[in-house]
Amino acid sequence: MDHVASSAPDARSVPVCYRHPDRETGVRCTRCERPICPECMVSASVGFQCPECVHGGGPAPSGGAGGGTARPMAAARPRTIAGGTMAADPRLLTKILIGINLAAFLVQLAVGESFTQRFELVGRAYTPLLPGIQGIAEGQYFRLLTAMFLHGGYVHILFNMLSLWWIGGPLEAALGRARYLTLYFVSGLAGSALTYLIAAPNQPSLGASGALFGLFGATGVLMRRLNYDLRPLVALLVVNLIITFTPGFGIAWEAHVGGLVAGVVAGYAMVHAPRRNRALVQYGTCALVLVVVAVLTLVRTGQLT
User: Fold this and answer.
1) Residues 33, 97: one domain?
2) What is the mean pLDDT of the chain?
3) N or C terminus of the chain with fewer C-beta within 10 Å?
């Protein structure tokens, strides 16, 4: 009891699910305000409810002695474990990202190779379909971003979009929209920067894999924080890394590694940041990762020019 009393602020910083006491969570039922883990969440019109409230057995919000004048506790909007605001559609940004990737792929099919060569990641190369020397080293830094939304074929985009739906959706619900989107772009840019730094300057690269591996890494950090079994995720990640480094697949392993490292770093800040100054720690860490991205990009540009 002495230990619990002495560390009360830390113990209360992240409550545990009332149905699974071994699982920490930052989400509460919008009706009864009891903390619930992702397994217990049932989507409601706004936020999530616990199974008991959904089936009518949960406690209703108290109205006070007067019988109708007190405000319900639902006025305090439920928060995710990372401090984000719960949304009515917890997968909205994941759907939008998938839509953007699909739209870009349709443009690739309609316009042809000239569109892909204009926006894929390439350090410095002469492209026959475009005039002159093209690449990031020529000041086309937008390629670090646009390459994240291009794909090399039907199998490529199908695999990546399925992965984004399976991994991104639950992670968006757990982090909140702003933090999830920040994590996605920070991981993708980190993957692009490492590819630019290491790969041959005339070797093109494209795909959402860097951002996806960042989501992989952040999901692992989140599952560890909630004491979930990491073995299925680790097995899936190992399989992906084996494929990544297998000769003949033509995969830009640099994007995968860069995205994974950035995702682990940013994800750790998202779910482990202290309640006090939480947003500052979270977004400050992401900003530091972007500083590293900028430094790597400038170093490589200096080498190539």
Assistant:
1) no
2) 84
3) N
Cβ neighbours for 227, distance < 8 A, ≥ 6 positions apart = 22, 23, 24
Say yes or no: 130 and 203 in one domain: yes
pLDDT in tens, 11-20: 445 788 888 8
Annotation says 256 is catalytic: yes
256 CA to centre of own chain: 14
Domain count, the chain: 2
| pTM recorded for the entire structure | 0.75
What percent of the chain shows pLDDT beyond 70? 86
Q: Which of 13, 156, 209, 272 is catalytic?
A: 209
pLDDT in tens, 141-150: 999 999 999 9
Among 151, 163, 187, 256, the active-site one is 256
Angle at alpha carbon of residue 196, lines to 191 and 197, rounded to 5°: 100
pLDDT value of residue 115? 94
Residue 261 inside a domain? The answer is yes
Enclosing domain of residue 148: 92-304
